[in-house]
Design a protein that fits this description.
With about 425 residues, this protein is of the alpha+beta class. It folds into 4 domains: about 70 residues, Monooxygenase (Up-down Bundle), CATH 1.20.1280; about 60 residues, no CATH class; about 110 residues, Arf Nucleotide-binding Site Opener,domain 2 (Arf Nucleotide-binding Site Opener, domain 2, Orthogonal Bundle); about 110 residues, Pleckstrin-homology domain (PH domain)/Phosphotyrosine-binding domain (PTB) (PH-domain like, Roll). The chain is built from 17 helices and 7 strands. It has a 7-stranded antiparallel sheet, with helices on one face. A hairpin with a 2-residue loop joins strand 1 and strand 2. The longest helix is centred in the C-terminal third of the chain and has 31 residues.
């Protein structure tokens, strides 16, 4: 064979054997070469083989074989975002399923997943402090802290970053352990600060800062610690070379801004603010829309709401289609989202949506509208839960062992 056209005369079965040796992301370049390759790279049997190579010949799917879009199923299963709800409920089994599917192949890849916004902080803690559950060693937490990057950061800024990403264990033993690990990591990243000569000194100051943070911002503490008292208490730490001005700057930084973990900042409104972000509504058809009243700190406010399969979005006025992805707030439906249908406070026009951390009370214009909203919301939430159950069956019911016939492929989103 001496020409390009001769190669195209090869049997399609042989071409399939050749194409499956490529990484899936390489098919895009090949598919625009000509119509022949475009057709082959979309062939369902090719993507079925990719699926089997990645996950094993006996790997489960969400649908019966005659109903499967193999390309869509492959990309759905390798997308880590589709594991988030499972992590929220069963973190250890989630990570094991990702290891089995080769979506996680190293400490660094696991840590990148654990840095996904919105993950339950208690579950992250469970994985990082007990890494043996998911077949990693105790260096996992150290690697996590190193990847947060504390180099050339002030101690307070580094502590804010740590708590925002990692959270703070509620038990004293867990808090001391994680703060000590943070302190060691901070000192390792900033050994020449001139203030600390060891990680132990960092830890003692960090622990004092956390206590100060609680004292200044917990509503149950009436008599707040004064700056002079904080400086005097910290200056007795042996070996600490911190000036009074440095310690005062720490005090006023904490006084002006509480150290909070993600999701714990006070809300100005009940619905989640997304002023800096836009929702991806490309696969979110409108299911229902209309006026509802929502609780606001100034009382009930009338807002336009749009319901899609995954979101209930709120707008100050009825939006144009081009601005629909920029609501003033939204509720994202999750596996644990619940709809409270019974009337609240004797008003049959009221209903509530309960998520993991909030209850949103809404009021319809009249009883007929309330029933229409209840029907539409019930259907969306039930469909979401059914889809989640399908996904969990795939992730959890496959064999715990990696099939020996499976060949690792490079995960690609």
């Amino acid at each position: 064979m001496n020409s390009h056209s001769d190669l195209l005369q090869l049997p399609e079965e042989l071409w399939m054997d050749i194409l499956v040796l490529l990484q899936p992301r390489e098919l895009g370049t090949l598919s625009v070469t000509n119509k022949f390759f475009h057709r082959l790279t979309e062939e369902p049997s090719l993507w079925q083989r990719y699926y089997w190579l990645q996950f094993g010949h006996n790997a489960r799917t969400r649908y019966q074989e005659d109903q499967i879009n193999w390309k869509a199923e492959y990309y759905w299963r390798i997308d880590p975002r589709n594991r988030i709800e499972l992590f929220q409920e069963m973190p250890v089994r989630c990570i094991k399923s990702m290891l089995k599917d080769r979506l996680i192949n190293s400490q660094e890849e696991l840590i990148r997943f654990l840095q996904t916004p919105g993950l339950n902080r208690n579950n992250i803690y469970q994985i990082l402090v007990r890494p043996q559950q998911v077949n990693f060693d105790e260096s996992l937490l150290e690697c996590y802290l190193k990847m947060l990057g504390f180099e050339n950061m002030s101690l307070v800024d580094a502590l804010r970053k740590f708590v925002w990403n990692f959270g703070m264990p509620r038990d004293q033993g867990g808090m001391r352990y994680t703060l000590r690990k943070f302190s060691e990591s901070y000192f390792s990243a900033n050994p020449n600060s001139g203030i600390f000569s060891s990680g132990e000194e960092v830890y003692l100051l960090v622990y004092s800062i956390i206590m100060l943070n609680t004292d200044l911002h917990h509503p149950g503490v009436k008599l707040k610690m004064q700056c002079k008292s904080f400086v005097g208490a910290v200056q007795v730490i042996e070996g600490l070379n911190a000036s009074e001005e440095y310690l005062k700057s720490i005090y006023y930084s904490i006084q002006n801004e509480e150290i909070c973990e993600e999701g714990k900042l006070p809300y100005d409104v009940l619905l989640k603010s997304i002023s800096k972000h836009k929702l991806d509504l490309s696969d979110q058809p409108v299911v229902h829309s209309g006026w509802l009243k929502v609780k606001h700190w100034m009382g009930l406010k009338k807002r336009w709401f749009i319901l899609t399969p995954n979101y209930l979005m709120c707008y100050k006025k009825k939006p144009f289609e081009s601005s629909m992805n920029s609501p003033s707030g939204y509720i994202e439906f999750k596996y644990d989202t619940q709809l409270h249908k019974p009337a609240l406070n004797g008003n049959s026009q009221n209903f509530a949506i309960e998520s993991r951390s909030h209850i949103y009370t809404l009021t319809a214009v009249n009883e007929r509208d309330a029933q229409e909203w209840l029907n539409a919301l019930s259907e969306s939430i039930l469909k979401l839960k059914a889809a989640t159950d399908l996904a969990w069956n795939v992730f959890l019911l496959d064999s715990e062992e990696v099939p020996s016939s499976a060949v690792p492929l490079e995960p690609e989103i």
